[in-house]
Amino acid sequence: MLRAATLPKVDAALLRQIVERILSAGSPQRIVLFGSRARGTARPDSDLDLLIIEESALPRYKRPARYLRALLGLFPAKDVVVWTPQEVQAWQQVSNSFIAAALREGQTLYERLVETVHRTLPSDARP
Hints:
By secondary structure, this protein is α+β, with helices and mostly antiparallel strands. Helices cover 34% and strands 17% of the residues.
């Protein structure tokens, strides 16, 4: 009889390590945990689903490679998808799209402040 594999527990320490490794490999604007692990419905054999949002000129299928390398040995079963902010903006309003579901159910693990302080200062306070 075959038994399903039991994967490591996903806790705050593991999620911190994941974020640190992703940040060391690239420059994401946002990292989102989605899927069953984010919803709290994961089984012992559930994988880890990560959405990384960043600027990129690469085709979508090539984008995850550096992040998968950075995460080697950390969690054995993972899916990493990388979308640009423009792709997210174009699809997030389509309620049944992958990106809308991932953002709706997901947990943001990291988000970089994209606007600079200079842009947020009133014009009379700018240097």
